[in-house]
Amino acid sequence: MFDLHVHVLAGVDDGARSLDESHAMVSGLAELGYCKLVTTPHIRDGLFPNKPEALTRAFSEWRAAMHEKGGALPELALAAEHHLDATCLELASTQRLMTYPDGRSVLVELPYETLPPRLSDVCFRIALCGYAIVLAHPERNRVLREHRDDPWPFTGGRPKLLLDLLALEGEYGAEAERAACHWLDLGYYDAACSDLHRPSQLVKLNAALETLERRWGPERRQVLLGSGPAAIALP
Ligand SMILES: [Fe+2]
Predict the structure, then answer these.
(1) Separation of CA 22 and ligand 1 centre (Å)
(2) Which residues touch 16 (CB under 8 Å, ≥6 apart)?
(3) Å from CA of 219 to ligand 1 middle
(4) How many angstroms is it from 115 CA to the middle of ligand 1?
(5) How far is the CA of 5 from the centre of ligand 1 (A)?
(6) Which member of 3, 12, 93, 118 has the greatest number of CB atoms within 10 A?
(7) Residue 159 belongs to a domain with what CATH number?
């Protein structure tokens, strides 16, 4: 199992707050069967003004600290969750977006209540810079939910889509849960991720994995957690 969206790097965003919390999260994910995690700290104007170079340094020290703490750990890699804002476009135009290990795919998140103006043009500009957009938790965006049978004109075509598994357990409200189930029924998602921020969410994640298997079957679970994420983002 691969997790392409998780906030386990400590002290850089609203995810893990200490090395102990990080270690509890990565160990817990290993126990659930994850063999590789890509930690995706937020880069967002105003809220999380992380710089790629600083995140890369922090990640390499953090990974060494995780191995010092020991135990069976998944393989750990770094990308980022880029909010679609001016910084994201500036990093794209200077070839500094923090990609997945494939060197091309970038995790992007949208606001929850609105869509950025001329979103399809913005997505096209990022693609022209050589990147492939992977959209985080589309089920949390109100406008995409309101056009749930055909939201892709807004994005200029369907990007790769990551389900946030905790949505299946109501973590983000009834509307997000309904949209997630609808898009699972339609086969829209390319991969399923934990978007874990706290060790306490591991219980709900386990329940979500069981829900995924019970309602959509073991084969779909295997695709969304194995071959799907591998095809999107791993070299
Ligand atoms: Fe996230």
Answers:
(1) 15
(2) 7, 8, 9, 10, 22, 25, 197, 198
(3) 26
(4) 17
(5) 6
(6) 3
(7) 3.20.20.140
d(CA 95, CA 97) in angstroms, rounded, equals 6
Burial 126-138 (b: 16+ CB within 10 A, else e): beeeebbbbbbbb
Instruction: Give the Cα separation of 118 and 146 in Å (integer).
Output: 18
139 alpha carbon – ligand 1 mean position (Å)? 13
Q: Tell me the three state secondary structure of residue 88.
A: helix
114-168 tens-digit pLDDT = 999 999 999 999 999 999 999 999 999 999 999 999 898 898 888 999 999 999 9
Query: What is the b/e burial string over 109-124, where b = at least 16 CB atoms within 10 angstroms of the residue's CB?
Result: bbeeeebeeebeebbe
User: Could you read off the pLDDT of 19-41 as tens digits, one per residue?
Assistant: 999 999 999 999 999 999 999 99
The rounded Å distance from CA 81 to ligand 1 centre is: 6
Query: Are 76 and 105 in contact, with CB atoms under 8 Å apart?
Result: no
CA distances 147 to 73, 100, 141, 159, 169, Å, are: 40, 29, 10, 16, 22
Q: Which domain holds residue 30?
A: 2-233
Ligand 1 centroid distance, CA of 162 (Å): 11
Q: How far is the CA of 83 from the centre of ligand 1 (A)?
A: 10
Q: How many domains does the chain have?
A: 1
